[in-house]
Amino acid sequence: MDTSAIILAAGAGTRMKSAKPKVAHEIMEKPLVSYVIDAAHKAGVSDLVAVLGHGRDVVAPLVEGDCRVVVQEQQRGTADAVNSCRELFEGHEGCVLVLSGDCPLITPETIARLVEVQRKRKAAAVVLTMTVDNPHGYGRIIRDSSGELSAIVEEKDATDEQRAIKECNSGFYCFDIRKLFDALSQVSSDNAQGEFYLTDVMSICREAGEHVIALPTEDADECLGINSRAQLAQAAKIMQRRINARHLDNGVSMSDPDLVWIGPDAVIEQDVELLPMTFVLGNSSVGSGTIVGPNSRLKNTVVGRNCVIDETVAIGAVIDDDCNCGPRAYLRPEAHLCRGAKAGTHVEIKKSTIGEGSKVPHLSYIGDATLGSNVNIGAGSITCNYDGKHKWPTTIGDDSFIGSDTMMVAPVNIGTNVTIGAGSVITNDVSDNSLGLGRARQVEIEGWALRKKEKDEDK
Ligand code: UD1
Ligand code: CA
Predict the structure, then answer these.
(1) For 409-448, how does the pLDDT look when each residue is reduced to its tens digit (9 = 90+)?
(2) Residue 285: Cβ-neighbour burial (10 angstroms; 0-12, 13-18, 19+)
């Protein structure tokens, strides 16, 4: 779709009571404004312009790459925000969308429909409207006796009679570019908030005899604007249910979908089972036949097929098919479990490859290590990868067996088919097929206990 969209994201979001700019607040670890950008992209909008102002140092990195950025120096209202894009659209024909950056539930279908209606009916403006039980805070849609849109009145400027209207402005529009900027020149700040309202464009166009359309949405939820923390929680709930419904439809099992949080960009194959208190966030993916949870959090983690991921936190990890994690495993960035590997109970793995069929079953830390296949790490073993200044690597060859409570002081290489005796501190390389032992010899003092007893009785 050869269309531009202006995304409004300069406001302070005072009602959030936050040091963070409103559109940078997150639902399932994704910023609000990114949801709007994604919906516009999916609708096929080819050119995005983000209007930034308040907290733009925080917001700019979230939109750069997807949007051209325009700065609105002072937040003097939504009309002023759109007007700050005037130069970019000088001499342009056709239509432009205006999207609120604080409405993350908007869908690509609705954005596309706005453009379609504007084009088909050659309207100066199309505004998406919604009918809600509690219109508090929204601009009200005023229709004339023939049912046509005549104006939008903000809550603070509305009469009691107007406040009773339940049809509201959603904050999504499609305008004829030229007519939009012509009308913007005529918007004043003579209102209760002393702001330049974009909504005044409607009545200005209407009075000029232009065609202005109020297009009711089929689903008021998708227009929910986030102005407060309560609305943020409400939107998060709706988003969770919307995403989960899609996965349930696709053959993913969840015994209690209200206790499963799947990010908008996660990919989950059919016949995955997600148990309660599970989070699948960021660009995570989960392969068919895998069970995740309970109490698990995957972020930017790739999980293969037929794995069991029980009470596990995995961030930036790769888990191949047939692996077993947890309960209580912690996989950190660049942890890679190859096919059939195991990261068991109270095991932390960072920037390490655990080869095919290798097992780290209990109470271990493995960092900056490369393990071959069929390695077994005994309980309580640790790679001592950090000397206080630098991180050092450990390698362990195929088929090696590391006894319990072994400290591998890196850098160190342990060959293939090696056995390390339990309780060893390994500071030197161990060659293939050897036994490595690094511990004090056990002493035995015969009859010691009897002599001690005699001594104690003499006292
Ligand atoms: C706005 C509409 C209201 C509508 C509601 C829907 C106006 C005057 N009112 O009200 O009719 O029902 O959205 O959610 O347009 N922004 C800027 N620069 C500014 C002011 C705001 O970029 O100077 C941005 C905000 O960051 C936000 C969006 O514009 O993303 C809407 O602003 P907000 O203050 O939330 O407007 P509402 O009071 O919700
Ligand atoms: Ca708003």
Answers:
(1) 999 999 999 999 999 999 999 999 999 999 999 999 999 9
(2) middle
- The H or E element that residue 313 is part of is strand 312-315
Please report, in angstroms and rounded to a whole number, the separation of the first and last CA atoms in the chain.
Answer: 98
267-273 contacts at long range (C-beta below 8 A, 24 or more positions apart): 269/305
* Smallest-distance ligand from the CA of 49: 1
Distances (CA, A) of 418 to 366, 403, 408, 436: 18, 10, 13, 7
Distance 21 CA to ligand 1 centre (A): 14
- Residue in 34, 100, 128 to alter for ligand 1 test, most ligand atoms within 8 A of Cβ: 100
The β-bridge partners of 337 are: 319, 354
According to DSSP, the β-strands at 376-377 and 369-371 are unpaired
Tokens of 179: 């007519």
Which residue ranges have their beta carbon within 6 Å of ligand 1? Answer: 8-11, 23, 51, 53, 72, 75-78, 80-81, 100-102, 138-139, 152, 154, 168-171, 197-199, 225, 227
Could you give the percent of the chain with pLDDT greater than 70? 100
CB contact at 8 A, 80 and 188? no
Residue-wise pLDDT for 186-229, tens only, equals 999 999 999 999 999 999 999 999 999 999 998 999 999 999 99
412 Cβ partners below 8 Å, 6+ apart?
A: 394, 395, 426, 427, 428, 429
Both tokens of 364, joined, read 């271990």
How many angstroms from the chain centroid is the CA of residue 74?
30
Among 335, 425, 337, residue whose Cα is nearest residue 381: 425
> Is 426:409 a contact under the CB 8 Å cutoff?
yes
> What is the model's pTM?
0.93
